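Protocol step 4 of 5: obtain the predicted structure for the target chain.
Materials: sequence only (see below). No template structures provided, no constraints applied. The aim of this step is simply to have a reference model before the mutagenesis design in step 5. Sequence pasted as it appears in the construct record:
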Amino acid sequence: MKKRFGWIRAVAILLLVVLMTLTFASCGSSGGNAESASGTHGALSWNYDKDTKTLTLTGSGAMADFGDADAVLWAQVRTSAEKLVLGEGITTIGNYAFYAMSALKEMSLPSTLTVIGTQSFAFCGALNTVSLPLGVTTIGESAFEGCGALTAVYLPASVTVVGDRSFAFCYSMSNFMMTGEPSSIGHWTFKNCRSLDKLVFRTSMTADRIAEDAFEGARKSFADATLTDNETGATRVLIRYVVNGEVVETKSETYEYGTDYSIPTPTREGYTADQLTVTGTANGAARDVTVTYTSDAVKEEETETVTEEAPEEDEPVSAMTIFSIVIMAVVLIGIAVGAFLLLRSDKKDSKKGSTVKKKTQAPTGKSGKSGKKSGK
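Step 4 output (structure tokens):
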């Protein structure tokens, strides 16, 4: 029996070693940069540049679908390509075309694009922002499912079909804007989009076009959406600069959807602004900001007032106070020790008294005995 268990244990250890070796080997191979490559796919040509880590497709017409992710012709660059460029003239993106391109961070899409196929960008874990060109009409099922780094999405007014699970499990997506009027938004479209904060739809959009489970597990739902007539997805930022209650200057800037902006506040001599910069990310909703300047003289007066009132606050414990506390503690300890010793002394005295009493009684007993003897 022991030999049998020993043999099984040896086989288990061997299998574990093999699995670990395969795991490390696969991790090592995915961490490199694929070699430059090129080829054709139907009417389209493709090229991967190793130096720039860019995958480029050129040609015209529709991109043929792939049966699954392994059938993609440029699958060898799936973990290497960081940028995707689709040339003008391409009208559709085939099913699974860019599935699980884990290094893909940015893409440039043509104005001729109309259809994004099923799972075409699913599980592209590094993709941050999606801004589709005007003219796209269809978002296929699970087109962007599992894009965990995706934070902002803008669907133009031309989009009429949003497939099931198209943005499911996009955990980081905080901004979503859709300015069209789709016939429907499919099941689990925003499933578990737990970071969804800014949700913008067209004013004419109605809840009956959205599947009941479209926002299952999401932070927001259609009921929380902002409705707008903005068709471009751009954000207009209006800043009012206020001094002594009056607007002394205004500034208006417009940013494309998904763009991060940082607008520095002008300096004014003798004044300090409550915001040194106005920052944010364009999410399609207009933003009005008020920056207030406070006179430095007023701030100095406030500081002086606070300083004068400071003594009213609790004062820190002084050295003399600490010394007094220590002396008091020593005295209390002395009293306790003295009381203890006194009690102990009393106990000893009482014991001595009882001992003396016993000794005093002893001779009486003896004389009694001798008396008895003499009596005899």
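Step 4 remarks: The mean pLDDT is 81. The chain has two domains: 33-228, 235-310.
Proceed to step 5.
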